[in-house]
């Protein structure tokens, strides 16, 4: 495994790490000035923007787009709302294509509003992804399923492990068309005793589409908005990156930190400087 020292061009900044403090144009410029090779945007930052123009600005800055975040949750209490969620995700896939994004990150959603039917939510997610796959293929943008920590099962993702995500990939895309894979976010999967084996499985099936890094703080003050900077917590980041690269992953190492009470309060330039230092020394 190669060191990331002097190789920031292999690294990406997810704009959530910067707390969405600046307009997307200014974030693009800041990430490029800091020497990173890629940026991952959020759909909210594209509102009232011409996506083609933003894509061109990213490329002109010398950056790639490591991903577009994230899908509208799919499970819904009515058929009409379910189909509306599918249509919204089709539009987002088109945006990802306009940005020339490496993938569209799918956080599938938890229980439908008012429901306790977890199996039903998972069935809706599978059906929704099946409806989206052909559009993703035609747009040339692979869908990256991101399993979330089990604490989010009710409201954000009924996929809680990398194994579940890969099982779903095999059901929906058994021919391995390249249109469906996984995003491995260490915050959500670092605890999983099957993680190494499932990363290897994903590599063998060529489904490793994205790799997101941050750290798990002890104690964690907020389970959504208190992610740590790499090296400040307990995740074995270097080891997990080794598993990823041994399994064939050679794309961006993307920093994604939600930190309402710490990093989001700091100047963007400081956050980027520390991200660069930690990527090269900890990851």
How would you explain this protein's 3D organization?
It is globular and about 45 Å long. It has 283 residues and is an alpha/beta fold. It has 9 helices and 8 strands. The termini are close together. Helix content is 40%, strand content 13%. It has one domain: Divalent-metal-dependent TIM barrel enzymes (TIM Barrel). It has helices at residues 24-33, 51-60, 79-99, 118-139, 162-172, 186-189, 195-204, 237-246, 268-281; strands at residues 11-14, 38-42, 64-69, 104-106, 143-145, 180-185, 208-213, 253-255.
Quick gist of this model?
The protein has 283 residues and is of the alpha/beta class. Helices cover 40% and strands 13% of the residues.
Helix-strand layout with pairing:
Elements: E1 11-14, H1 24-33, E2 38-42, H2 51-60, E3 64-69, H3 79-99, E4 104-106, H4 118-139, E5 143-145, H5 162-172, E6 180-185, H6 186-189, H7 195-204, E7 208-213, H8 237-246, E8 253-255, H9 268-281
Parallel strand pairs: 1-2, 1-8, 2-3, 4-5, 5-6, 6-7, 7-8
Observed structural traits:
alpha/beta, eight-stranded parallel β-sheet, TIM Barrel, 283 residues, 8 strands
What is the overall number of helices?
A: 9
Overall 3D shape:
globular
Number of domains: 1
Strand order of the largest sheet: 3-2-1-8-7-6-5-4
CATH class category label? Alpha Beta
Largest sheet: 8 strands, parallel
The CATH homologous superfamily: Divalent-metal-dependent TIM barrel enzymes
Sketch the topology as an H/E string, one letter per element: EHEHEHEHEHEHHEHEH
For the record, the CATH architecture stands as: Alpha-Beta Barrel
Low-confidence stretches: none
Arithmetic mean of pLDDT:
97
Query: How far apart lie the N and C ends?
Result: 11 Å
What portion of residues is helical?
25-40%
Percent of residues in beta strands: 5-15%
What's the number of extended β-strand segments?
8
């Amino acid at each position: 495994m190669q060191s990331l020292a002097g190789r920031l061009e292999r690294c990406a900044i997810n704009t959530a790490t910067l707390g969405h403090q600046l307009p997307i144009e200014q974030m693009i410029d800041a990430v490029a000035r800091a020497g990173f090779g890629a940026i991952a945007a959020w759909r909210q930052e594209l509102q009232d923007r011409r996506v083609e123009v933003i894509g061109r600005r990213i490329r002109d800055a010398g950056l790639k787009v490591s991903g577009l975040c994230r899908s509208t949750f799919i499970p819904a209490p009515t058929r009409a709302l379910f189909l509306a969620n599918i249509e919204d995700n089709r539009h987002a896939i088109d945006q990802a294509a306009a940005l020339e994004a490496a993938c569209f990150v799918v956080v599938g959603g938890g229980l439908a509003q008012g429901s306790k039917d977890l199996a039903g939510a998972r069935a809706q997610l599978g059906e929704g992804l099946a409806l989206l796959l052909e559009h993703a293929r035609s747009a040339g943008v692979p869908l990256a399923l991101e399993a979330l920590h089990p604490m989010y099962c009710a409201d954000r993702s009924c996929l809680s492990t990398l194994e579940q995500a890969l099982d779903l990939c095999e059901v929906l895309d058994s021919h391995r068309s390249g249109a469906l894979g996984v995003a491995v976010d260490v915050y959500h999967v670092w605890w999983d005793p099957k993680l190494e084996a499932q990363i290897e499985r994903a590599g063998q099936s060529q489904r490793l589409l994205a790799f997101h890094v941050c750290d798990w703080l002890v104690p964690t003050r907020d389970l959504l908005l208190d992610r740590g900077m790499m090296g400040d917590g307990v995740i074995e980041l270097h080891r997990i990156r080794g598993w990823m690269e041994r399994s064939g992953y050679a794309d961006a190492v993307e920093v994604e930190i939600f930190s309402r009470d710490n990093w989001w309060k700091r100047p963007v330039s400081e956050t980027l400087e520390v991200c660069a230092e930690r990527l090269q020394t900890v990851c």
